[in-house]
Amino acid sequence: MHENFQFTVSDILKRRHFEHVQVVAGYEGLNRTVKWVHIVEVTKINKLLNGKELILSTGVGWKENESLFRSFLQQLIECDASGLCIEMGTYTSSIPQEIIDLANEHHFPLILFLKEVPFVEITQDIHAYLINQHYQMISNLESYSQQLNKKLLSIEHYDEILKFLHNYLGHQVVFRMNGKEAEFVPEHVELSAVDQLSQQPKKTASQPIQLLGNEYAELSIVSLEKEISEFDLLILDRTATALAQHLLRDLYVEEKKRAQENEWLKGWLEGEHSNEAIYDYLTDHEPELKPKGGFVSICKFKSLRQYSNLDITYFKLLFRTIFEQQGFYTFSVDFRSSVIFIMLNKRGIKTWKNRMKTGIQRLIESDFVNKKRVPCFFLGVGKFVEKLSHMDKSYRTAFETIKIQHQLGKKANSHFYEDLHMYRIISLIHKYSDLNEVVMEYLEPVIQYDKKYNGKLMETLKIYLACNGSKKETAKRLFVVRQTLYHRIQKLEKLLGDDFMNPEKRLAIEFMIKAYEYLTPSDENQYVQNDK
């Protein structure tokens, strides 16, 4: 175990110049940490201290004024000073009971020098010790880091890092990975004792394990005896960094192995495997996994060249890390300039879509995407299926979503197949017939008029239909006066017929407007990240 590096009031009482002292109050605070020693003779000091200072005083500031003395002591307590040492005789002859009671109430050590002592020599002695201790702490920290780095080159499991931390500090170590039960080193410790101590802020410390910008786990230490020291916190931080490196390496290796399983997963996407075969496969990979349905999500990159320049393994690892936190288990398949993710749902079916939306937002906002290390890409989410053997249906609908997004560009307003509604029908019709010819049969007069006169009739028609024929609301949304709107509606009646607002014809025209938007190329595609 390392040197403690916690210098307490109790330790100071064992040093030179403290042979003739008396502790008159705050015995329970003798384990308070001391970071510095100050000689203070003024009574207003609440802005002069940083905390953890041991104060030396002759009492000249308050002399026999009990009210000033109490105010001085109260300020020390509020500033988290470590204790107060008073030289008895010249300015202070006795300590009032009220002062002793206040110090005892806050476990604040009150120490009396019974003989005259040289304050300067005390500060020189203790400051020299603290500075030497600080240099030793840095040396020990560097030595610990080097040992830890060597271990990272050879260890196979992160529990070796946890054991190393426990052996070095002597504290109870608690490791919590997202979605899993906490692990304890040593294991035989009574959990009730750990839980009780974890409620005491000064006896416990935690450090999150960050992977790819997301909190993946948490490392904690719990002291069974003394308070957690500054050195303990530094060691905890170095260990958390080492753990993050080890876990990231493991995840990276695991992602590489997953890439080798592409062929079987492609067969799953094509509907070649039965439910029994799929569950056998899942059991081999994750025995405790009991999925409640699933779906396919496709990330299609702008070009094959951009795809090849991207660290695909890192991108898949980022994707997996984010969506695992949302309750999904993922398998990935590389296909041309796309990555296809089979998403297995581990939580309630009703919440899958909201959780997926949250994950997509975090992916878009991640540093890896925002700093342009990821080229522009479409993201399409297929239909949710409850039977895993029907994953081919979700795959086809995810692919259709990407196709519609690519066609609509900025006009697409969702990553989910089930939100595209009318565009799904339009896409199907377009696949098997000349959709453009049908659209022109209804809308060509309006389109040609706008091209010739820049008349904005198509925009007017679309909003007029969306407002259910309300002229007042249409004028408001178009930011035009009523007279201008009336003129445009008269022109539409002339081009489309007086009956264009009759139910059946109106429905057909609304459908054709959607189809026209689908067929019209967009200047800017709806990428998750747009080129600027």
What does this structure look like?
Residues 11-130 form the Purine catabolism PurC-like domain. InterPro entries: CdaR-like_regulators (IPR051448), PucR_C-HTH_dom (IPR025736), PucR_C-HTH_sf (IPR042070), PucR_dom (IPR012914). By secondary structure, this protein is α+β, with helices and mostly antiparallel strands. The protein has 4 domains: 9-126, Udp-n-acetylmuramoylalanyl-d-glutamate--2,6- Diaminopimelate Ligase, Chain: A, domain 1 (3-Layer(aba) Sandwich); 155-255, Beta-Lactamase (2-Layer Sandwich), CATH 3.30.450; 261-420, Alpha-Beta Plaits (2-Layer Sandwich), CATH 3.30.70; 431-519. 49% of the residues lie in helices and 15% in strands. The chain has helices at 9-12, 66-78, 97-105, 119-152, 159-169, 191-198, 230-259, 262-269, 275-285, 304-309, 312-324, 352-365, 367-370, 391-408, 422-432, 435-453, 457-466, 471-478, 482-496, 503-519, and strands at 21-25, 36-39, 53-57, 83-87, 110-113, 172-177, 183-185, 204-211, 214-222, 294-301, 328-335, 338-345, 377-381. The strands form 3 sheets. Strands 1-5-4-3-2 form a 5-stranded mixed beta sheet, sandwiched between helices. A 4-stranded antiparallel beta sheet has the order 7-6-9-8, sandwiched between helices. Strands 11-12-10-13 form a 4-stranded antiparallel beta sheet, with helices on both faces. It starts with 8 loop residues before the first helix and ends in a 13-residue tail after the last helix.
